[in-house]
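During the no-cost extension, the postdoctoral fellow (Dr. R.K.) reprocessed legacy sequence entries with the updated structure-token encoder. One reprocessed record is reproduced below for audit purposes.
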Amino acid sequence: MLIDLHTHSNASDGTDTPSELIDKAINKHLDVLALTDHDTTRGWNEATKALLNHPSNSSLQLVLGSEISCQDENGISIHMLGLLFDPTYEPLINELEKTRENRLSRMEKIVARLNEAGIEITIEEVYAQKQGDATLGRPHLADALVARGHVASREEAFAALLHNGSKYYINHYSPSPMDAIRLIKEAGGVAIIAHPLASQRGRVISMELFGELISAGLDGIEVDHRDHSDLEKSELLRLAIEHDLIVTGSSDYHGTGKLNQLAEFTTHPAQWEALESRARDRRVVSR
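Re-encoded structure tokens follow.
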């Protein structure tokens, strides 16, 4: 089975529409695909309709979720994958909306810092890279910098200007990871921490914080991810086994403009079965 539990569409900072993402997953013969756009559920309806009305006889199962932006008390950015939660649970949805709205003021501040350094870019140019009501994010700024000719690609933009350790980086409002876990669980979902030791993305979380996350109800760890070294994967696998946590592997696919390929890392079927069983209700979408 091919199981990819972390992908994005243009409902946030991916390049594919939810329908196009479903097409690609079916053409690649995936068995399970999770749509996890940043801080939003806006792509859920389109993805669901695309699967249910698809002309093929694919047996693809669709997992609906969101990658929730969090930060700890030291300002370290942490991403929590909430999967299979109830989209009508208002406390969680309101928190997602609050986080999305704060991304605008944060982006304006990053643009101002770039301007002060002589890198000319406007907030309007950033918005021009965003489709519809998509969640605003740094990849949109990266695309605007590419369009302006400041850099050659998204990858170069992040490596040179937009990484978490950059002098242009600014945090935005987001819940603590413990609060995110609590809300996901209250909404009947499953909480998986995404790429927690990806050191090239910036500062990583401490083992002490892992203990707090586990106590808060963390269900699993995204171990197999492009941004984890072999040593980091080994450390995370040891932690997962020690605490009986689910182990996932995912592409973190964003479409064109990123190296990540759909299903380049996948989740073992037994781990997926354990994950799905932890959701309060059976919410997997299938034909």
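The mean pLDDT is 92. Strands lie at 3-7, 32-38, 61-71, 77-83, 190-194, 220-224, 246-249. The remaining legacy entries will be reprocessed before the final report is submitted.
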